[in-house]
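Schema walk-through. Below, the input block comes first and the output block second. Nothing else is stored per chain. Lengths vary across the set, and this one has 134 residues.
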Amino acid sequence: MKNKTLLVAGVLFGTLHLNVPDGQAMSPGGRGGTSIVISSQPQFIDIPDQGFSVSIGSPYDIVSYDNRYYLYQNGSWYNSRDYRGPWQVTRESNLPERIRRHRIADIRRYRDTEYNRRGNNNQNQRNNNNNNRR
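--- output ---
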């Protein structure tokens, strides 16, 4: 019985492929999974040193690279040609090497660092403009 159960689980989960219309997909785990719904186009910030862009102000970690989107959620990667989906589960080993070589924590740090750098530059420019008006 145990062997049959493992075989059924292997058949079911070994071929799991999510391709759900309307920008939604279920994470592996079925009923307990999390829906991916992106209702408006995310904003991205370019990370020049890494060669990809990362979403800002989005509830999801999305990397834009080579005309594709790669979304990370709950330990799983998904990819799509459109930010609305359909999203397909992607093994980490199948991510583009430029993304795969970074941990998600590092990608978030790159995004935050670049965002803060640009924000500080914009603030410094505003301060300089205000000082020039005085």
